[in-house]
Design brief:
α7 links the parallel β8 and β9. This protein has two domains: 104 residues, Aspartate Aminotransferase, domain 1; 243 residues, Aspartate Aminotransferase, domain 2, CATH 3.40.640. The radius of gyration is 20 Å and the shape is globular. By secondary structure, the chain is of the alpha/beta class. The chain is built from 13 helices and 15 strands. It starts with a strand and ends in a 5-residue tail after the last helix. A seven-stranded mixed beta sheet has the order 2-10-9-8-5-3-4, sandwiched between helices. The protein has a four-stranded antiparallel beta sheet with strand order 11-12-15-14, with helices on one face. Strands 1-13 form a two-stranded parallel sheet.
Length: 361
């Protein structure tokens, strides 16, 4: 039974995008592939308004590979990991698994990482890299990356800033040069509204220069190798998922047609409507002012069974997400990202109202 996905990923993929993957394959060392891949990079540059000192790239991987790319290619000795949920914790642990030292700035789940918290922690020890999660999918918290980036540029200009925006990029407004970050990355099964299998990374020249001085980069995780190969040949150093790249090429055309501001406004409208509904019947987990624009995490204050809700929603061809990990049944999450629009969000909330008896008589 097909279910329409309003979970934090994977999200809905249109028939138009799925059909792009039916095209015949081409060799990844041919002129045809060079034109395809270079075209995608150019479209990413336009969408994210990248100046010349930033480079976009696409890896055949989940977004999690970029945890290891940061750990192997960016962190020299020690990183500060800002954690306020399951995925930011995973980012920090991944850096440790790469053999680097990590200090943790731990914040209660549901709370945001603030610039003053980061500044205080950075001032207490020696760190060469700051890592944080832009959009903490487990809690629906949106960390203030623009404010943190501004503080970092002013007070800690030598510290490289690497951001996981796996569930935020595209849906939320991402302008890396304005944020002041050096690495930011996402997966295509979230706001890009593609199947899983690709990750988009944006890297500053400053980060690339750092990578050139870091040892033990590995092979698939070598940022120098990835970006150098594109610079020389406009191709990928390793065999890419060509079928998904066809889909990404089409998606970028659609995103550019809608415009970055239009995409952001659509996601913002969905988020605001969902929050208003949640506050009417329940409560939000994120602290006020730091709510995600792509996934809403709702406290289950009425003690309803989220598992049973999803079973009922499945009969109506919908699916939302239970709380993540230790927040299961205590919260539930509605992903409003990718191709979804306000009418689609209203429809799923109508069904939840009916199933849980929330509609006013």
């Amino acid at each position: 039974m097909r279910k329409r996905l309003l979970i934090p990923g994977p999200t809905e993929v249109s028939a138009e995008i799925l059909r792009e993957q039916e095209r015949f394959l081409i060799g990844h060392r041919t002129r045809e592939f060079t034109e395809l891949y270079a075209g995608i990079i150019e479209k990413l540059n336009r969408f994210f308004q990248l100046p010349n000192n930033y480079k976009a790239t696409v890896t055949t991987s989940s977004g999690t590979l970029w945890f290891d790319i940061v750990g192997r290619s960016i962190v020299k000795e020690k990183a500060l990991a800002c954690t306020n949920g399951a995925f930011s914790e995973r980012f920090g642990k991944a850096i440790q698994a790469c053999g680097r030292k990590v200090g943790f700035l731990e914040v209660e789940w549901g709370k945001a990482i603030k610039p003053d918290m980061v500044s205080k922690k950075l001032g207490s020890e020696e760190y060469d890299t700051l890592i944080l999660c832009h959009n903490e999918t487990s809690t629906g918290v949106r960390n203030p990356i623009y404010e943190i980036g501004k503080m970092m540029k002013k007070d800690y200009p030598d510290v490289i800033v690497a951001i996981d925006s796996i569930s935020g990029m595209v849906g939320d407004k991402i302008l890396p040069s304005e944020i002041g970050c050096d690495v930011i990355f996402a997966s295509t099964q979230k706001c890009f509204a593609l199947p899983p299998g690709l990750a988009v990374g944006i890297v500053s020249d400053r980060a690339l220069e750092r990578a050139k001085r870091v040892t033990s980069q590995g092979l698939y995780t070598s940022l120098v190798r990835i970006l150098d190969y594109y610079e020389r040949k406009h191709q990928t150093p390793f065999t890419p998922n060509i079928s998904l790249l066809y889909a990404l090429d089409k998606r970028m055309d659609l995103l550019l047609e809608e415009t970055p501001e239009g995409v952001y406004k659509r996601h913002k409208a969905m988020a605001e409507y969902t929050r208003k509904w949640a506050k009417k019947h329940f409560a939000l987990l994120p602290e006020p002012g730091y709510e995600s624009v792509t996934v809403t995490c709702i406290k289950n204050t009425l003690g309803k069974s989220v598992k049973e809700l999803n079973e009922r929603l499945a009969e109506r061809h919908f699916m939302i997400s239970n709380g993540y990990g230790r927040l299961a049944e205590q919260t539930f999450r509605i992903g409003h990202m990718g191709e979804w629009d306000l009418e689609g969000v209203k429809e799923i909330l109508w069904h939840i109202d009916e199933i849980w008896g929330l509609r006013e008589k």
